[in-house]
Amino acid sequence: MKLLAVTTQLLEIFLAVLAAPLLVGWVNQCRAWLQNRSAPSIWQPYRGLHKLFYKDAVVAINASSLFRAAPYVVFSSMVLAAAIIPSLGTRLPFTVAADGIALVGLLATARVFVSLAAMDVGTAFGTLGARREMMIGFLAEPALLMVLFVAAMISQTTSLALIAERLSGGAVVLYPSLAFTAVAFTLVLLAENARIPVDNPATHLELTMVHEAMLLEYSARHLALMEWAAALKLFNYACIGIALFVPFGVATQLQGPVGLAIAVPTLAFKLLLAGAALAVLETVSAKLRVFRAPEFLATAFLLAVLGMLVHLLLGA
Amino acid sequence: MKGIPFDLQILNVLAALLLLLSFSMLAQRRIVVLVNLLATQGLLLFLATMLLAWRTGEHHLYLSAVLTLALKVIGLPWLLRRLIRRLDVYWDTELLINPSATMLIGLLIVVFSFGLAQPISALASTATRSTLGIAIAVILLAFLAMITRRKAMSQVVAFLSMENGLFFGAMSATYGMPMVVELGVALDVLVAMLVLGVFFFQIREQFDSLDLHHLETLKEHE
Lengths: 316, 222
What we know:
The complex is a heterodimer of chains A (316) and B (222). With 316 residues, chain A is mostly helical. Chain A has one domain (2-314). In chain A, 70% of the residues lie in helices and 0% in strands. Chain A has helices spanning 2-34, 44-53, 65-84, 100-120, 124-155, 160-168, 176-192, 211-214, 220-245, 257-284, 293-314. In chain A, helix 3 (65-84) runs parallel beside helix 9. The longest helix of chain A has 33 residues, at 2-34. The radius of gyration of chain A is 19 Å and the shape is globular. Chain A starts with a helix and ends with a helix. By secondary structure, chain B is mainly α. Chain B is built from 7 helices and no strands. The radius of gyration of chain B is 18 Å and the shape is globular. Classes of the chains: A mainly alpha (316), B mainly alpha (222).
């Protein structure tokens, strides 16, 4: 049993790290199809990373050691986050140590380091991007916490693995409160991953960019790690959504190795659907002005709180 | 939620969606979308009434469901859209306070009305008693929507949404009002709508706009 838990944990981390660029490639491909462009290969993100790892890094002359350390910190906190999220199995050695709230903390750590590194060199664009990132972050974080709290109240625990286990087991039950929070979570996912209504991932030179503005000073392996971390973040968010709202098919304690064998293709199928849905969402919506982003995230927070109230009223 | 029969679960989901629609009406800026939201709210009400009628076997509920469909999903929205076209008021409805603040006030109202409904639903014996809080919240949110709008058209839409809330409240507390009352209310709403339609034209003729703050001063020349 112990062996199986460790295997699940390792498999989960490796899968997350290796498959994250694939998810980004899939989303880009779907977007290209929807926009009637000829799609880039699904392996394109890997080629980009490969190219960046073989280049020589250039660092600004006044950059401090924080600027060099930030990519490693950001990447490793994303890997840690991937270890906590029950994407394949619910009995993981790591989940005992950290629950959903710690997960939000890990994501916040990554955000703080990205922003600090962006301000470190002192260029105008970096500072601008960092400020916007912090504005979006401080509005998105309470909404994300509220979403987690609703799921925690339903399943009486803050541990993500136990939430996924309790929600996946038993008969089909309709939770109106979870429907509210699912919408709220989608809004948070779009905002946090620099997706279209809030930020445009396809641009490198625009006054409205947020995420790209922070990475302008990075090159070569630093940039590769930052981009890989961003892909991992999207993967993590998708897995959190799957664990909270459609956890069916995840391997629980009782099922043994068979459960794990079922869990891998199930997760792949769900991610395939999630990526396609994300591409559709991005294609049908127009980018918001930056000043409308608070309104967008206030809506997410409101929906999550509403979900909690509905749960308290209906007991559902 | 476990142990609640499946049809009641669906009813709870419908109630939650009604609440969500009330909030989107609160935040919506465009009058045409507002009317569509009202029609959707009517449709949800129709589905909930049909479900309840099927569950409880109360035959008069079927009749009120059909009435809801005819009046609130088809009749009144059609009338409103025609008025919008004839008055040519596609413009954005202006909110008195910004949407985020309105939504936060709305959240407080929901907390208040859920608290208000708690003792009432503890005493009620209907299967749908837990949705009473949502009904009260829908009524009060429609109130808020009326307060925060200035244009006559959007105030009327909010008024009709309030009527939806009352209907839902009666349904969840006592399985609907007596048939006579229900018919009376339906007729009232229809007549009110027709009279208000005439009023719109009068108001516009006087002031060249449907902005109701023109009506706040008593004399024409001060």
